[in-house]
# Entry
Amino acid sequence: MSQVIGNTALAYARVWHVVDARQRVMGRLATNIATTLMGKHKPIYDPAADCGDYVVVINAQDVLVSGKKAEQKLYRHHTHHPGGLKEINFNDLQAKDATEPLRKAVSGMLPKNRLRQVRLDRLKIFAGAEHPYDANIIKQYGVKQE
# Structure
């Protein structure tokens, strides 16, 4: 006997959200994006099920960080060779790729499990205001309408 009531395909349907990152603090923005990618805003949320939505972030080059994080925050990775610890600060990483600091912030706020990369694949970040997903967008947050 099934415990399913109603149209579950409609409940699991993925919605496209667009978020304008201009003049928004990166950490607070990343928590909201991670919540949407996980699907915690839906009443059918299950930690083991992938029920999150798509998120398109525009104007990622204009994201803010509080305090002295722009100069002091370090991103580290290791090359797997002896003495291969590499460091880059926020300003240099943003100059190199404007989308990467926000992607790393959202990645750090997602659960470390098999669904993490699948959820990150639904995150589309663009440095400017132009993106190819205009036809898909259903919900908009902080985006100016012309």
Observations:
- The beta strands are 16-20, 54-58, 74-78, 85-89, 123-125, 137-141.
- The longest strand covers residues 16-20.
- Residues 39 and 52 are 4 Å apart (CA to CA).
- The helical segments are 8-11, 26-38, 69-72, 90-96, 100-109, 116-121.
